Amino acid sequence: MKQIIGIIVAAFGVVAIFSVMPVFTDSAHDLQVDTVSEAKTAVTTGVGETSADVVLVNELYRDRATSVTSITSTVLTDVPVAGTYTAATRTLEVTGLTQSETRTLTINYDMDALEEWTMMSLFVGWTPVLILFGVFALIGGSVWALFHRQS
Known about the structure:
alpha+beta; 3-stranded antiparallel sheet; 2 helices; 39% helix; 30% strand; elongated
């Protein structure tokens, strides 16, 4: 009987962990980033040009172009996409622009919200893993105690 109860407790614990883990990881990411919106006016492309460089006020989160969440343009034929990002100058290449046009680009991106606190971003990033290990230890300890309980 103890073995069946132990298996049920362990199975329930594993299901519970995988059910709530996305909540922990999303919460940790939300603590690590702030979303910023910048409007860049008078972004111009010349004849044969379909990309333009814009300088951002803040650094992209972890210096990755994938931290750009959206780019919109006032030119309806533009399909703006974040291209390469140069961290040293905070320059983002925006591709998919219509040639020979002047537009306003609105760029939404994530930046590091914890850059002022040394090591805090690393700690927050590892928090879901620590919670996972803690829950596994709790489940393992419960099952162990169930089998080693003295009658």
